[in-house]
Amino acid sequence: MDLHLEGKVAVVTGASKGIGLAITRAMAEEGVRVVAAARTVGGPLAELAAGGRVRPVAVDLTDPDGPARAVREAVEAFGGLDILVNNVGAVSPRLDGFLSVSDEEWTWGLTINFLTAVRAARAALPYLIERGAASIVNVSSVNAFLPDPGVIDYCAAKAALTNLSKALSKEFGPRGVRVNTVSPGPVETDLWLGDRGVAATLAAESGNTPDDVVARTAAQTVTGRFTRAEEVADLVLLLASDRAGNSTGSDHTIDGGLITTL
Q: Which entry of 114, 127, 154, 192 is annotated as an active-site residue?
C-alpha cells in the first residue's frame, strides 16, 4: 500500500531507540525526511542518518526549549513540517507506593511523558497549519486508562496526553491538522526489557527473574506476546498518512488483547 508519504517532513521525538527508532526507520523507508530528536544520536540512529533522509538532532527534550529546537531544525532544513510524532517517554516503577513519590519524581514523570508533547505541539502547529493537511500522532499507553499504582506518575501523564490529543483534534481539525493517539501495551523495548527496565525492576523486588516477569505479563494478553516496536511504527505511519485522512481525535490500542473491556 502506498501511504503517500514520499517527500513529507516529520519530527519524531525519542528517536534513538525502541518505538521512536522504529518509527524513524519506517518513515525513512517511505520517503519521509525525518528530524529525529533524542538525547543521544549515535548507534542505529547514526546509521539511519547515513541514508540521507534522517537528520538526527541531539537535544534534551525535557528542557523547556528542547522540543521547539527540534521543530526549528525541521523547518530550517526542509522548509516546513507535515508530521509530528510525540514519542519520547520513560517510566520508573514506584515500588514503595504513592506516598513515596516526591515532587521531583512527579515533575520528572509529567515532564518527559506529557509536557514534552505539549511543547512540541505548540511549536509545530503553526507550521502544520500552513500545510493545510498535516498530522500529529501522540504515543500514549494503555496505562492512560489502566491505572497502576506501581507507575502512578506515568499513568497520570499518559492520561493527560490522551486527553490533550482529543482536545487538540477538536481545535485544529477544522484547520487541517489531524491528531490521533496510539496506545501500546507492553512492547519489546528497553523500557520493559532493558537492564533497568520494568521487568528487571519488578524481578529484583519480587525475587523472580526478568524472564518470569515478562512471561507472566505476556500471558495476560490474547496473543501471548509483547508487541514489536515495528508493529507500533506501522500503525503510527498509517495514522500519519492520508490513507487515514478522516481519522482524528481517535485512540488506537495495540496491546495484543491485554485490555479485555470495550
A: 154
